[in-house]
Design goal:
This protein is an alpha+beta fold. It is built from 14 helices and 13 strands. It has one domain: Creatine Kinase, Chain A, domain 2 (2-Layer Sandwich), CATH 3.30.590.20. Strands 1, 2, 3, 4, 5, 10 and 11 form a 7-stranded antiparallel β-sheet that branches. A two-stranded antiparallel sheet has the order 6-7. It starts with 12 loop residues before the first strand and ends with a helix.
Length: 363
């Protein structure tokens, strides 16, 4: 398997943010991806903008940065440029895990052969994927380091979901979940928590078996919550909902970077209990009670976030992301994105008002 591990300095970081494209009049999703991509041609560095499965989704990719502080400074300006491109194309930009009311099955699939094939092979689950995530990439030196980082991140996927929860509504209904995206994404094959790999070679053998079986064409068809990405030389965290506030994006990126760098400090944990924690975080967000492996106790998600940040602060100082990691504390002490969306609905009485709030807050 071709890899680029070690091609970049270790623990450089970049993100991919998936944005909703919104009709300014109806506030519904609008399939304007081709118009936005055309508007961005020559305006932004090649590869910055990309399509995804849904034609109402715009993926925005940052370059790799030496520090999360650099990423944090770049994100607002990049979002502003992309927002202007969307507006020129007749769309508004929204960052949240799911649209409050647009029916998922009505969203057209993009014309990319990859996604046409996915639609053909999966059927209904593919049509439900009108969801929007934050992906964090952290460069690692080699395959073994990638496997260890995946393991360390996997045990903390529930906490990432709790911190990022930003999708309470689905097709006009309050799901009573903090992250409906986490459940909808689980409809597709090879999603959810990653298998536990003892070595890089075991990961390679697993992918090769799936290729020989005709299940996948390459490892990028394994859509786990966190995975090695050898073509980029990174580990990729895929669990968080898209964040309305770019400051929260930076905070989650810092947490991911620190965990990847400190991976050897975290032993693999019982996947069944991690799955249970993931459900609790999906349902309750930061109000969840999570099983704490180290203390064999139940701990509030907010407290778990504070304890993890405290443990990682020495690593953050070495990486230069202490301020951004402390942003996780700010998230843990405030309302989630899901809470804020519900508050807007309670105050305004309209899901269109929720869309307006999200569009205005997507800074």
């Amino acid at each position: 398997m071709e890899t680029r591990f070690g091609a970049s300095p270790p623990y450089t970081v970049g993100v991919e943010e998936e944005f909703q494209l919104i009709d300014p009049r109806t506030r519904a999703l609008t399939p304007k991806i081709e118009e936005v991509l055309a508007a961005g041609d020559g305006e932004l560095p090649e590869g910055t903008l990309a399509s995804e499965l849904s034609a109402s989704c715009l993926e925005v990719r940052t370059p790799a940065y030496a520090s999360v502080a650099e990423l944090a400074r770049a994100l607002p300006a990049l979002r502003a440029r992309v927002r202007r491109l969307a507006e020129r194309s007749g769309a508004r930009l929204v960052s949240a895990g799911a649209h409050p009311f647009s029916p998922a099955a009505e969203q057209p699939i993009t014309g990319k052969p990859r996604y046409r094939k996915v639609d053909e092979e999966m059927g209904w689950p593919a049509r439900m994927q009108a969801i929007y995530g934050l992906h964090v990439h952290v460069a690692v030196p080699g395959g073994e380091e990638a496997v260890r980082a995946v393991s360390a991140l996997a045990r903390h996927v529930p906490l990432f979901i709790a911190l990022s929860a930003n999708s309470p509504f689905w097709e006009g209904r309050d799901t009573r979940l903090a992250s409906v995206r986490a459940k909808v994404f689980g409809l597709i094959p090879r999603s959810g928590l990653p298998p536990r790999f003892a070595s890089w070679e075991e990961f390679v053998r697993h992918v090769e078996r799936l290729v020989r079986a005709g299940s996948i064409r390459d490892y990028t068809f394994c859509w786990w919550d966190v995975r090695p990405h050898p073509k980029l030389g990174t580990v990729e965290l895929r669990a968080p909902d898209a964040q309305t506030d770019p400051g929260r994006t930076a905070a989650l990126a810092a947490l991911c970077q620190c965990l990847a760098a400190a991976a050897e400090e975290f032993e693999p944990e019982d996947p069944l209990l991690t799955e249970e924690n993931k459900w609790r975080a999906t349902r309750h967000g930061l109000e969840a009670e999570l099983y704490d492996f180290s203390g064999q106790r139940t701990v509030a998600a907010r407290r778990a976030a504070e304890e993890l940040v405290g443990r990682l602060l020495p690593v953050a100082r070495e990486l230069g992301c202490e301020a951004e990691l402390e942003g996780v504390l700010e998230i843990s002490r405030s309302a989630t994105g899901a809470d804020r969306q519900r508050a807007v609905l309670a105050r305004e009485g309209s899901l269109k008002s929720v869309v307006d709030y999200l569009a205005e807050a997507t800074a």
